[in-house]
Structure formats: C-alpha cells, structure tokens
Design a protein that fits this description.
Strand content: under 5%
Largest sheet: none
Radius of gyration: 18 Å
Number of helices: 4
Structural class: mainly alpha
Shape: elongated
Number of strands: 0
Number of domains: 1
Helix content: over 70%
Length: 92
C-alpha cells in the first residue's frame, strides 16, 4: 500500500495546515520520528560489546542517519516558510 493511501488522513491534515510541500515534509518528519523510536527501542536490546551501555554500532549509524535526515527536512521546512513569508510581504 502506498504511503499516500496508508497515511492519507495525516497527509490531508498536514497539507491543509501547512500547504502541500510543507505538509508532505511534516508527514516525513513523523515517519522519521517513528523510525527513530523503533531503532532506539532496538538499541536497548542490541548492546555494543565494545561500548557497554551503548547500542551496537549499526544501530548507532542508523540513528545518526535518521537524525541527520530529520535535520535536513526541518531545514527545508524552515526555508519554505521563510520563502512564503517573504513572498507575502512583497504583495502588500
């Protein structure tokens, strides 16, 4: 099933609140957050032999990738918002 079908209600709500582009990015942030939570839970059970108390290295790498992706998406959302506000200011 497509993400557009699976999460259609959330996507519609975000697109209504934030606009098409930012709405899709907001849903992407939700999906990344869900993935980060699941990886974090896995990290509790999959501990590193070399670094006690820390997740295994592959789990740490996946967590970092997800956190980095969230940062990039967040940056794009802020840039779109600035562009939208800047565009509104020139029309007045």
């Amino acid at each position: 099933m497509s993400i557009f079908e699976e999460r259609s209600t959330d996507l519609e709500r975000y697109e209504f609140q934030l606009g098409t582009e930012r709405g899709k990015l907001a849903l992407t942030m939700d999906l990344l957050t869900d993935a980060l939570v699941l990886v974090g839970q896995h990290g509790v059970y999959c501990q590193s032999a070399r670094q006690p108390g820390k997740p295994a290295m592959d789990v740490q790498i996946v967590q970092k990738c997800i956190v980095d992706a969230k940062e990039l998406v967040s940056t794009v959302m802020m840039e779109l918002e600035r562009g939208r506000k800047g565009g509104e200011g020139t029309n007045r």
